[in-house]
Design goal:
Six copies of one chain form a homohexamer. Chain A has five helices and 17 strands. Chain A is α+β, with helices and mostly antiparallel strands and about 220 residues long.
Chain lengths: ~220, ~220, ~220, ~220, ~220, ~220
């Protein structure tokens, strides 16, 4: 399941862009030296990285829609990434466990936060393959797409302009996508219909939600 | 979870009692020779057995509340059983797989259909132990108690009068009790609240119910 | 995961269309009376149904690509369905267990076989929702789309011409979609690369495939 | 499964009561503002809370019967709670994950430690619903009832006197109740019968216990 | 886990050998044409096959030790196979699902029944690889080795004399080897120690065995 | 599955032996007082223990073959142990959870690092029972055998000379042995054959490996 969440306000987008504008970028292969499919640039200055990561992480954690969909347990510091003409990230799969300075994280969900206007560049769609189905995302500034890390996906070649995004990886309390999505959908129904329900039926809904969350959720 | 379901009408109770009245009973150990805890009598005539089993099985299968709670896949032919003073069935556990003439059945749920008035006998409660909690059932004629086969239970000694019941064992499409009960409860909420819901939310509820049933249900 | 499989030759398409042309159709709600979202027509004559179902079922079972993707255990008789202008099948979910004349089937996968040219009608796409992602299929005659039964999907309104398809439901030996797709992908890699491998590595691949199939597959 | 464990000595009961007697209590909704079913009072002073919680937590951890039944991984600081006439806690379900000052805890088991004599108040039973079965607990001072957090339960209205208890929530190393209870029962049999067994059979029992514990237990 | 079970009496061994002596054998690749690792001969006459298969199948089903270890649900008709000098069956893995005339069988366990004296041939050991551990079996006439189908195994080259065995494949009610072995071991302890136990502890043992069997066993 | 891994260089073996030579040993029952099967001696000096444990732990963590096979999450400090004539460790099973100074560890795998030449002592093989199969290991200095903690195993009596080993216990990210071994085997095939594969097939292999690792791996 794929979820688009507005994460950043216009002002926050501008802040991240300002940080990026004043920072140096390096070849993205610095963190994946053997990955020839990866052709992009990522923000490199320690300070700029820390500032942007903190702003983005705070925005994610503070977003209820994001939390409800993701059941976040750990969020990797988001990394600002850019693609200029000719750059692309060929079809690949995100690794299951990432070594970060703060420890290891299991990447259940991947998240791309778009930072500039899709009209500013040609190409550059996030393209997910589901067998013979193809889904493409090219979102507005401040919007994030959250998608399972275990699908084959690529960033299509940018042919004009610049694509600026931040990417991150999330370990969820509910690791299995089927279960996580079901819990999200059940919670949506309960949130939208709960106040109309007879109290004992709403209590039963909460019982069921808690039973499933306990049954499927990892230890904290 | 324990469910009381009215299964038989007064007339059907009378029919089963009439069949039993004209039939011979034998020591219950005939089907469990090594089980010294079992001290009761069970209906033995082939014809009476067939007639009563068919009536009872039809009543169970035709009962929507029973079906919703049990998700029946196979139901053993119910057997009329009686306890006269001094008889009891000590704490025991029902076997997981039963060899029946028609094949093997996995006993997920046990069911006792009470046939005579609790005022007609002293003792004879179905007593289920849940660690230090104790639950007792002594129901009205025609009512059935459906309970998990994998709990320690006993029939307490009858000290006066006669206790007449029919017992059966059910293989459920949803073998796990936690999952079966959750599906039952979710269906109850949907049945009671569904018509009040916005159509797209009700459709989502049905999606969730079908997802869980498919995820947890055995092959037909 | 979504898979497009060419199932019928041009001649077979013509045969099914000829059967349909000579048959009567009835309101699709005949098999789902309470489903107001369903607005289509389905083939009704017993003989035409039997002939078309047999032709289509034989084509599915005989298709290796279909078998490799689906791990079929049971296939419901495909039913020819048509949509004329104004008809649609609103967003819905396929039930988990279907009662068929030959017994019960668990619907793990749904399959739509397209029978006429997409140029012959406007609208009528099969539209699957994956949260905020949307996938649409409108295939060539003889092509089938196989998709998980447990997603929210709809047939968009036909606004011009006629849409003729056959639909069916499949119980898979590997009920879980994640596991089924992984086995399919692993088999594809083994099929494409196996002959190049060192014999002991290919034997190991087969061991792994058999281990997973045994671990995840239902009893036959 | 429900387990009654004597946790506190008479002296320890008196100590907790003395702490409670000198402390202020506040409306229990302070920690669940939207829960209208909750009508009770809970101990509020930081020092009194810390003292009582430490005493109670130490008593729980030091109790072998409790440990054997619960496989405790985390225990929330127990909170002294009181009900005066008219107070009750309507049927509710305990949430799956609790945010505590020290971190998040998954509540697998709930525990009520009774602090005053049941003769001192009318009503106030802990009432657990298991479908159509009902279980009530009103224990002696110092006794605790441990029960699954995921059942519908209530504290019945106190109609006379005062009910004083401490409540806590436990994250178990074996999250699933079926598995936890089975391990407890198997360990009880091994403890009671092990010394009589042939050494190789007792070793096999230990092998089985360790296999199940490893198979079902969470990472530490 | 590997189990040696005496299946055939000396007389039964002689009967099977007599059937084999009067029958024709064909290249074993007749049933696995693409398997170059398979270099053996298998009994081919329809009558001889039926006679030997029935004798062997009856012996297996009638053997309590075999049943306790295997939890048999389906047993493929055993096939008499022979290896003369130079023949071997290189390291391979048994397929998960076998197509047999009577339907499909999932091969959980493989079984080799040795028919002639190990002194009559050199080589020909059944060799199972468990990573860097190696286990070899060369049993007495009438003895069977039962082993998991999902390990890499081979029949080492026969360098002198003739190796005569019967092989078969078994679908178990408890598909998972870890679970099946645990149930077997628990049953062995209960059988050896049960009569010495206090009745309530023995009842608890039976409860646990039935709970596990129900929890892990497939539908009949 | 059993894996032999060369862990220590000759020089490292000498270092550990030097540490052991200068240290005192105590009766091994000091850490298992009730275990009468345990008849060995273990290194006791705090400094010697720390030095040897650190050297051995570093060697294990730094060994890629070990990491690939074990998916280590926690490794207990290895303990140098010796057996002189008459000493043995009877058939036993390793406990599921070990209390260590640094916290609790779940023992999924056990590991014995051999420190002196097998020619220096008679007896002393590590003997693992797999039902009726028996595997024995008596390795060269510096070699380690890694084996599942949940099998019945023993150290056979040393009848001459001295057996010097280090033992440790490992908590794996992939707790289940079936799954861990499958992931190891799949990675071996990918490592040996990956460079020969078409890029899209190798990407698919990585997708599958990451899917399985994510599906089966514990939270970090």
């Amino acid at each position: 399941m794929y979820k688009i969440v507005p994460i950043l306000s216009g002002q926050q987008v501008d802040e991240v862009k300002a940080i990026a504008a004043g920072a140096t970028f390096v070849d993205g292969r610095i963190t994946n030296p053997h990955n020839t499919a990866k052709q992009n640039e990522q923000l490199h200055d320690a300070t700029a990285y820390q500032q942007s990561a903190q702003l983005l992480q705070t925005a994610l954690v503070g977003n209820e829609e994001f939390r409800n969909f993701v059941f976040p347990s750990l969020i990797a510091p988001p990394l600002v990434t850019r693609y200029t003409p000719g750059m692309r990230y060929g079809a690949h799969t995100d690794v299951a466990y990432l070594q970060l300075p703060g420890g290891t994280i299991r990447s259940d969900l991947s998240c791309t936060i778009f930072l500039n206007d899709p009209a500013e560049y040609d190409g550059g769609a996030l393209h997910v393959q589901l067998g013979d189905a193809h889904v493409r995302f090219k979102l507005n500034p401040g919007e994030a797409i959250v998608y399972p890390s275990d699908t084959l996906h690529e960033v299509e070649e940018v042919t004009k302009g610049e694509r600026l995004v931040a990417i991150t990886f999330i370990q969820s309390r509910v690791a299995d996508p089927f279960r996580r999505n079901l819990l999200y959908n059940l919670n949506e129904v309960a949130a939208l219909e709960g106040l109309k329900m007879a109290p004992e039926n709403f209590t039963m809904m909460q019982l069921i939600q808690n039973q499933l969350l306990r049954h499927w959720g990892e230890k904290p």
